[in-house]
């Protein structure tokens, strides 16, 4: 048996401003730092001690892992990072305000881009300042592997090789593995773990900064479908807030805001 801890990064500056983020490397907000600290406290309270941590290549996930592990005095554990844990690439929507996008294109199109399983947003152009094609951290990747946009099905496809090749071997050692990543890369992982259908994954949201713990059997399948949030009440409220993004704040901010 092994334990898998999934932790979505704390609130980012662009989460707070209600902007589509994707592969843009924005930092945590002050609230996001507090959420990461609370995530560490929750791990301590539950007596969960990760043996290894996996993160994406984006600083909001890296800093969340560091803050949470620091609280638990576990900054020293081995760490592995991969672009395969990155947030879903949001294509040409990166940097756009969610509420404005919904107003401009309508609720149906907005939700198709945001949550449909297999329809990606329009691709970002390579010369767009918010494109990642010239980002140093992806320099060793063949250009065709760097996304210009992704739907959740694309994220499942690029995440699963990392699950099988990097995370499962750590779980097979019988330890506790923490994966600190993003709303949509964790939705992709949960879809795989819980066998969520393409239809039902549309309604699944992951809150920031609250550890979600899965006990896994010898085949790395969950003993309990859906796992357990370490603070279920806070998770429930935060899941509703993620669901409602686009419907509320910052309607007057400029769309296509640059970093
Ligand atoms: O903007 C993003 O990259 C993601 C996560 O913050 O947003 P959403 O929840 O709308 O997919």
Automatic annotation (TrEMBL):
A molecular function (GO) held by this record is: phosphoglycerate mutase activity
Q: Where is this site: Transition state stabilizer?
A: 182
Q: Which residues bind substrate?
A: 8-15, 21-22, 60, 87-90, 98, 114-115, 183-184
Q: What is the primary gene name for this protein?
A: gpmA
Catalytic residues as annotated in Swiss-Prot or TrEMBL: 9, 87
Reactions catalysed according to its record = (2R)-2-phosphoglycerate = (2R)-3-phosphoglycerate
Q: What name appears for this protein in its UniProt entry?
A: 2,3-bisphosphoglycerate-dependent phosphoglycerate mutase
Per the UniProt entry, what species is this protein from, by scientific name? Actinomadura harenae
Q: Which GO terms describe its biological process?
A: gluconeogenesis; glycolytic process
């Amino acid at each position: 048996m092994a334990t898998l801890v999934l932790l979505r990064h704390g609130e980012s500056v662009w989460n707070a401003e209600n902007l589509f983020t994707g592969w843009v490397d924005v930092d945590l907000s002050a609230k996001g730092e507090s959420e990461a600290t609370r995530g560490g406290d929750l791990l301590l309270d539950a007596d969960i001690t990760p043996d290894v941590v996996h993160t994406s290549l984006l600083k909001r996930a890296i800093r969340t892992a560091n803050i949470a592990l620091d609280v638990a005095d576990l900054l020293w554990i081995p760490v592995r990072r991969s672009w395969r844990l990155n947030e879903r690439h949001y294509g040409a929507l990166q940097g756009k305000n969610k509420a404005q996008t919904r107003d401009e294109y309508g609720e149906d199109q907005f939700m198709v881009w945001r949550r449909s399983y297999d329809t990606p947003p329009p691709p970002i152009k390579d010369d767009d300042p918010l494109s990642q094609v010239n980002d140093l951290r992806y320099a060793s990747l063949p250009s065709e592997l760097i996304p210009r946009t992704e739907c959740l099905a694309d994220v499942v496809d690029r995440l699963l090789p990392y699950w099988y090749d990097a995370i499962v071997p750590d779980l097979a050692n019988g330890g506790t593995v923490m994966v600190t990543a993003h709303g949509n890369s964790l939705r992709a992982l949960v879809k795989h773990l819980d066998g969520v259908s393409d239809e039902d994954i549309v309604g699944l949201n992951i809150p920031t900064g609250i550890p979600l713990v899965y006990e896994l059997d010898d085949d790395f399948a969950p003993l309990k479908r859906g796992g357990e949030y370490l603070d279920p009440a806070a998770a429930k409220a935060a899941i509703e807030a993620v669901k409602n993004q686009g419907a509320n704040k910052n309607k007057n901010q400029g769309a296509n805001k640059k970093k």
